C-alpha cells in the first residue's frame, strides 16, 4: 500500500514476542506496585538459586550451582563412601568428607565468590558426620537428606494449597511475568502442576532411598550411589520438565492489513 505522496508507510505493528517470553501489559508495568512486585519475584528466584540466560530462558546448569556447585554437593558424600569402603572405619571417612567440604569453602574464599552454598555444604556435612558418629552407623551420614526432602515437599505442597506455587514464584521472574500470573487461572494451574513435578522428584528420592537406608550397612553402597544420581542430575531434569510444562502459549501474530 502507498500513500498520496508516494512514500512507503511505516509499519507500526508491534513485533510478536519471542516464544516462551511473556510481556506484561502496560498497565501492570506502570502500576504503583510494579517495582515491589518485580523486586519480590526477582529476590525470591535469586535466593532460590534460579538464573536466566541471555535468551531469557532458565539456565539449568547455573541454577543447580554450576559445575563447581554440583561438585560441592556430590564430592563430600562420594569421598565418604570411597573412604569407608576402603577403610571400613567411620572416623577417618567422616573426617575425609568434612575436609572435602572445607576445601570448597577455601576455594571460594580464594575466588572471592559468595560463600553461602559452600558454608551450607560444610554445615550439612558437619551435621551428617555428627549423626553418623553419634549412632556409629555409616548409613546415618545420609539421613539428614531425608528430612531436608520432607521439609521441601511440605513447603511446596503448602505453596500450592495457598495458591502461591513455588514454580510460579521462580519461573515468573525468569519469564518477566512478575506475580501477574496469579491473576490468570490457567497460568496458576500450570505453575501448580510444575510445582507438583518438583514435589514428585523429591518424593521419588524418598521412595527409592529410604528402603535402602533401612537395609543398614549392606545397603550403604546402593544408598550412596542413588543419592548421587538422584541429586543434582535428577533436580536439573525435574526443573527442565517443570519449565516445559509451565510454558505459556505463544501469542499468535496479527494478520497484516492491506488497502485495495
UniProtKB/TrEMBL annotation:
Which of UniProt's keywords are assigned here?
A: Membrane, Transmembrane, Transmembrane helix
| Basic and acidic residues bias: start-end ranges | 8-23
Recorded hits in InterPro entries, A to Z, give: UCP010219 (IPR016566)
Positions of transmembrane segments? 69-87, 93-110, 115-132, 152-174, 195-216, 228-246
Pfam families (alphabetical): DUF3159
In residue numbers, the region (Disordered) covers 1-37
Per the record's keyword annotation, is Membrane included, yes or no?
A: yes
The name this protein carries in UniProt is Integral membrane protein
Amino acid at each position: 500500500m502507498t500513500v498520496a505522496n508516494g512514500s512507503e508507510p511505516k509499519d507500526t505493528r508491534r513485533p510478536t514476542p519471542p516464544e516462551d517470553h511473556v510481556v506484561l501489559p502496560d498497565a501492570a508495568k506502570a502500576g504503583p506496585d510494579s517495582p515491589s512486585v518485580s523486586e519480590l519475584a526477582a529476590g525470591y528466584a535469586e535466593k532460590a538459586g534460579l538464573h536466566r540466560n541471555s535468551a531469557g530462558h532458565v539456565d539449568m546448569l547455573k541454577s543447580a550451582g554450576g559445575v563447581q556447585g554440583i561438585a560441592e554437593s556430590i564430592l563430600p558424600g562420594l569421598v565418604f563412601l570411597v573412604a569407608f569402603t576402603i577403610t571400613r572405619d567411620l572416623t577417618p571417612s567422616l573426617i575425609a568428607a568434612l575436609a572435602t567440604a572445607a576445601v570448597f569453602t577455601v576455594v571460594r574464599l580464594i575466588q572471592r565468590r559468595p560463600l553461602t552454598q559452600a558454608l551450607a555444604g560444610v554445615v550439612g556435612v558437619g551435621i551428617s558426620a555428627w549423626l553418623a558418629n553419634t549412632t556409629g552407623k555409616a548409613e546415618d551420614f545420609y539421613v539428614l537428606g531425608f528430612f531436608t526432602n520432607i521439609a521441601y515437599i511440605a513447603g511446596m505442597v503448602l505453596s500450592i494449597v495457598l495458591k502461591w506455587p513455588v514454580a510460579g514464584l521462580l519461573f515468573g521472574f525468569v519469564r518477566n511475568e512478575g506475580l501477574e500470573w496469579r491473576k490468570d487461572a490457567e497460568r496458576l494451574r500450570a505453575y501448580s502442576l510444575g510445582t507438583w513435578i518438583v514435589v514428585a522428584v523429591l518424593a521419588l528420592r524418598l521412595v527409592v532411598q529410604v528402603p535402602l537406608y533401612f537395609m543398614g550397612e549392606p545397603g550403604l553402597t546402593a544408598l550412596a550411589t542413588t543419592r548421587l544420581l538422584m541429586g543434582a542430575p535428577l533436580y536439573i531434569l525435574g526443573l527442565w520438565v517443570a519449565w516445559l510444562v509451565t510454558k505459556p502459549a505463544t501469542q499468535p501474530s496479527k494478520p497484516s492489513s492491506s488497502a485495495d
